[in-house]
Specification:
Elements (H helix, E strand, L loop, with lengths): L8 H16 L4 E7 L3 E5 L19 H8 L3 E5 L1 H4 L3 E9 L5 E10 L1 H83 L4 H79 L1
Antiparallel strand pairs: 1-2, 1-5, 3-4, 4-5
Helix pairs in contact: 4-5
């Protein structure tokens, strides 16, 4: 049992209980016992040094003075700026059997852990919000790429159709070329039959056949180039389809990630609100 600190048995009983109160609060609380004039006993927490000492007068202002005046407990949060550590102060009047105020039980409970949790939750929440924004931007960029690929795909399909239409034109030109060549051959035969009278016609026939051959060669070259273009467009189209499929899969995964991040952000916010109530 501790030595008596006053003639009042209630105050002495509280004095005897200090070691148990200290254990109850995990040695994280500083406790004062006062009469109505001065501080009688201090049980200090190693984590808080508030500067008062035994024998000092009870403060004439603030929560202790209010508790003495009203006879009601006063609880207040004291910011870090005042004493270097944040804490919650309790000013509880001590009354005798006739309800007269004979002193105060003052306690200061450190809020450092709460502030650490608050800071951590705010940092986590801020980081998650930034990640969520970045993920959202990536998701939108993916959608833009998919849209761009779709436009390119449609343009390639249209170009491929135009190539096929050109093939029909080339077939027509090739047919005309063959007919022209046949016409030139027939003209050459008739010119030969006409002898000297058909010499001029023979020259015309030769030119017709040259034009037919030239047209036919050009048609073959154009056809070859168009086939290469068509094959290249098909490869690009296949590549776009594959790319879109991959982007669809990534987009789906990105949505899941964003959803998970938002849930974590809500959890961090809930943790912050819980810490504020501690």
């Amino acid at each position: 049992m501790l030595s008596p600190v006053a003639e009042n048995t209630i105050i002495n009983s509280l004095n005897d209980s200090l070691q148990y109160i200290d254990t109850l609060f995990d040695h994280d609380v500083t406790i004062y016992i006062t009469d109505t004039e001065r501080i009688l006993k201090i049980l200090r927490s190693p984590k808080m040094s508030l500067g008062s000492k035994e024998g000092d007068p009870v403060p004439k202002v603030g929560p202790p003075a209010e508790a003495l005046k009203t006879g009601k407990p006063v609880v207040q949060v004291v910011p870090k700026e005042m004493f270097g550590v944040p804490f919650r102060s309790y000013s509880i009047p001590i009354k005798d059997n006739e309800s007269n105020i004979v002193g105060l039980l003052l306690a200061a409970k450190s809020l450092e852990k709460m502030e650490e949790v608050l800071t951590l939750s705010e940092n986590v929440s801020s980081s998650l919000n930034q990640i969520s924004l970045a993920s959202g931007n990536i998701f939108r960029d993916i959608e833009k790429v998919v849209d761009s690929n779709s436009n390119t795909f449609n343009a390639l399909n249209k170009a491929n159709k135009n190539v096929k239409d050109t093939n029909e034109i080339l077939k027509f030109i090739q047919s005309v070329s063959k007919q022209t060549n046949l016409l030139g051959l027939n003209a050459a035969i008739e010119a030969s039959r006409a002898g000297d009278a058909g010499k001029g016609f023979s020259i015309v026939a030769q030119e017709i056949r040259k034009l037919s051959k030239s047209s036919s060669d050009s048609v073959r070259k154009i056809d070859s180039v168009l086939k290469e273009i068509s094959n290249s467009m098909e490869l690009v189209t296949d590549s776009i389809n594959t790319s879109n499929s991959n982007f669809d899969a990534v987009s789906s995964e990105a949505e899941e990630i964003i959803s998970s991040i938002q849930e974590l952000a809500l959890t961090a916010q809930a943790l912050k609100e819980l810490a504020e109530k501690i």
